[in-house]
């Protein structure tokens, strides 16, 4: 798999790529299929990570320079580290159109499982909110007295629904996931999700990073039906990363991930309320630069290579 290199020109919109048809735009990624292929049955796809950033179901302006390359590089690192635990969707990071090299991956076509598979090793975010409201997270009853950033041993599998574009994902219990997908598939997803998380928690810890939680997505291969790890994996967009040397239970942790942007949006400095009907303001240059710096630090500390 190829190395990642920096570029000064952010990529926001889906480019035209010879030999590929653009079929889907996500919050951050663009999906292509080979020219003329049916998107519903294509056995190979091109997944392109742009420099867009989103929060609270809004796409924010401007983008974060190099973000797509950083996400792609971090995902590639983790796919390689996890290959003995779970098959993944990446076919090639190098056999891609030259104009999107470093941010595009040729991948297996998957029929995605309609579930966000979340592993939580620390209590924070919506998990903490659920705990404060009812003493449980994802159907797991937890002891009293836990606080912001309390460590959870063992880590918890806490699924959520996959919402349509513009809607909100909803945390559900493992029992509800069984009702949705069946017991066998849910148990397989839980086992794979927690295996990935525990491997990653150990590896990140060796690099001075606390992996608080992460979101994974799985799909079935269109060639043989194998359950495969798809999308991105263990990036600052899909995970919470904290520095181990500043970790302190009972307070909000400085982050090496997208939480920095969320925190700015909900601070008085932004002048915006996430409950309003107005779009968020443009990110100031300082917030863009600090966000990029956090993503670069996560990339370099995790992979051990300079960006």
Mind explaining what this structure looks like?
It is a single chain. The chain is α+β, with helices and mostly antiparallel strands and 307 residues long. It folds into two domains: 20-108, Phosphorylase Kinase, domain 1, CATH 3.30.200; 111-256, D-amino Acid Aminotransferase, Chain A, domain 1, CATH 3.30.470. It is 27% helix and 25% strand. The protein has helices spanning 67-82, 125-134, 174-181, 183-206, 259-265, 285-303, and strands at 20-25, 29-34, 44-49, 53-55, 58-60, 90-92, 104-108, 110-112, 115-122, 136-137, 140-141, 151-157, 160-161, 209-221, 227-230, 239-243. The strands form four sheets. Strands 8, 9, 12, 13, 14, 15 and 16 form a seven-stranded antiparallel β-sheet that branches. Strand 14 (209-221) and strand 15 (227-230) form a beta hairpin. Helix 1 runs parallel beside helix 6 and helix 3 crosses helix 4 (183-206). Residues 1-6 have low confidence and may be disordered.
Based on CA inertia axes, which overall geometry fits? globular
List how many beta strands DSSP finds.
16
Which superfamily, in CATH terms, is the homologous superfamily of the largest domain?
ATP-grasp fold, B domain
- Radius of gyration, taken over Cα atoms and rounded to an integer in Å: 19 Å
Number of helices: 6
Separation, N- and C-terminal Cα atoms: 15 Å
Spans with pLDDT under 50 lasting ≥5 residues?
A: 1-6
Helix content: 25-40%
Q: Provide mean pLDDT, rounded.
A: 94
Any guess at the CATH architecture of the largest domain?
2-Layer Sandwich
CATH class of the largest domain: Alpha Beta
Number of domains: 2
Q: How would you sum up the major sheet?
A: 7 strands, antiparallel
What structural class should be given to the helix and strand makeup? alpha+beta
Pfam families: SAICAR_synt
Family: Belongs to the SAICAR synthetase family.
Enzyme class: ligase
EC number: 6.3.2.6
